[in-house]
Backbone:
């Protein structure tokens, strides 16, 4: 299998090259030249473990990796020392026909772990295959969760350095401490003065600057990415859509080939896009429900066909979704337009110049034929956490609560279809908002994050995730802050070149 640019501005490349490059150097994103259809019957895969299923799905996309290499990557990523559930991604039944896909059982308590525990192994293999003679430097922009997951995945990986950029004051204290206390001789963390979109744009501009990249190459450095703009980060996420479907079959909740819904809280559109690729491979899906917070640029796009980021950026209680530039939307539009690179290039050049674009009615009809879009306010998010805990004794984080709230609205149109809601973070990761939901804002007064963590544990009896325990006692290693416009100099200073 080969990978092509969404803008048809770069030669097609192998999987290893796509993973190593991260994004298309001339702008755009790598996608499979053709999405493969699964050849196995779903019922024949029903008794596979998560690792076995991952091998089965990944082989369709990593065609220049041997079966043994894929197996090695899977075994090293998905084992009990890393994930605290033997299922890797447990499926919790919330109520009749409604299930929660728990994606947060990895080391950093966020869904990014499922991909970022295996992606470093993909990249190491890619470097070997391509006989690369330069040091690989991973640049990551994060709205909170990707950063720590990437740091944990790439920590002490030989021949690779990682630099994570996050918005100063734009992540939770828990997220910030997770990143700032990361050990490893090859890890670096920098807060930038701006919001997540500013950080993401700055990193993209570094990748797209041929002169700067040529300078780095002369110094023995090549850049790559661990954000979901890198296909190697996105492809492992396809697995858990098949896993959840097969889990439902095994539990006799659905019949083979029965169509179900997936409701996914998302800001950058990567998580829900992985589900769409599973659907393209043959997974029976009726609707994808795209759940947004008050930065509802995706909701508005799905409902109107206009992508318009000319709006105020809001800091919400679901900060990992505080995003106005949804990078993976480009891949989705490329697929749904039948690989119309000219159209993609036109739309995203317009977005760059005017901060908005309008798709045609045919494309919009195709999108609304498979996808719904809605959003949850901050108040609704807190109310949903309280309601679900009271009714089901089940604790949601703020992002998962966005998904549940949006699904509750959608359910008024369709209450019969079995629906899986993506749970993207452990509730303790956003403990202040979760405690506020249960006990009111006054319960937070005069208390730091770690007192709140313990209070939440006492109230709910739920164990604190190992990745969050005793975080306040760990040494802060990374404290660098910089300006968005100075990102290239920051990179050079860290690399000492």
Residues:
């Amino acid at each position: 299998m080969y990978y092509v640019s969404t803008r048809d501005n770069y030669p097609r490349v192998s999987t290893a090259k796509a993973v190593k490059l991260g994004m298309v150097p001339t702008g755009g994103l790598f996608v499979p030249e053709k999405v493969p259809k699964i050849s196995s019957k779903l019922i024949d895969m029903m008794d596979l473990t998560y690792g076995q299923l991952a091998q089965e799905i990944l082989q369709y996309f990593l065609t220049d990796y041997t079966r043994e290499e894929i197996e090695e990557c899977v075994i090293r990523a998905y084992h009990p020392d890393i994930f605290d559930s033997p299922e890797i991604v447990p499926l919790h039944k919330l109520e009749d026909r409604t299930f929660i896909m728990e994606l947060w059982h990895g080391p950093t308590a966020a869904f990014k772990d499922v991909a970022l525990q295996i992606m470093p192994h993909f990249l190491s293999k890619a470097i070997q295959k391509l006989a690369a003679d330069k040091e690989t430097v991973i640049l990551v922009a994060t709205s909170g969760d990707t950063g720590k997951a990437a740091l944990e995945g790439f920590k002490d990986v030989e021949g690779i350095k990682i630099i994570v950029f996050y918005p100063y004051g734009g992540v939770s204290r828990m997220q910030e401490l997770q990143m700032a206390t990361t050990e490893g001789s090859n890890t670096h963390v920098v807060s930038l003065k701006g919001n997540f979109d500013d950080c993401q744009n700055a990193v993209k501009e570094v990748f797209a600057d041929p002169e700067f990249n040529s300078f780095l190459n002369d110094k023995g450095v090549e850049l790559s990415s661990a954000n979901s703009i890198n296909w190697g980060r996105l492809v492992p996420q396809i697995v858990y859509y098949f896993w959840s479907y097969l889990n439902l079959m095994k539990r006799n909740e659905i019949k083979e080939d029965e169509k179900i819904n997936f409701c996914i809280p998302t800001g950058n559109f990567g998580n829900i896009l992985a589900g769409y690729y599973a659907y393209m491979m043959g997974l029976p899906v009726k609707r994808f429900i795209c759940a947004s917070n008050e930065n509802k640029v995706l909701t508005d796009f799905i409902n109107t066909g206009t992508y318009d980021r000319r709006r105020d950026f809001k800091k919400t209680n679901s900060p990992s979704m505080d995003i106005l530039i949804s990078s993976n939307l480009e891949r989705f539009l490329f697929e749904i337009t039948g690989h119309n690179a000219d159209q993609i290039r036109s739309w995203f050049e317009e977005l760059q110049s005017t901060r908005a674009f309008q798709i045609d009615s045919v494309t919009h009809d195709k999108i609304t034929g498979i996808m719904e879009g809605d959003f949850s306010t901050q108040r609704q998010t807190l109310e949903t956490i309280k309601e679900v805990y009271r009714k089901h004794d089940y604790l949601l984080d703020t992002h998962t609560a966005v998904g549940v709230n949006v699904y509750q609205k959608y359910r008024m149109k369709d209450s019969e279809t079995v629906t899986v809601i993506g749970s993207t973070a452990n509730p303790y990761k956003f403990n202040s908002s979760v405690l506020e939901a249960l006990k009111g804002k006054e319960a937070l007064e005069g208390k730091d994050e770690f007192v709140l963590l313990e209070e939440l544990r006492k109230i709910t009896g739920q164990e604190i995730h190992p990745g969050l325990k005793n975080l306040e006692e760990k040494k802060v290693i990374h404290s660098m802050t910089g300006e968005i416009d100075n990102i290239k100099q920051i990179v050079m200073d860290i690399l000492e070149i």
Remarks:
- The first helix runs from residue 15 to 21.
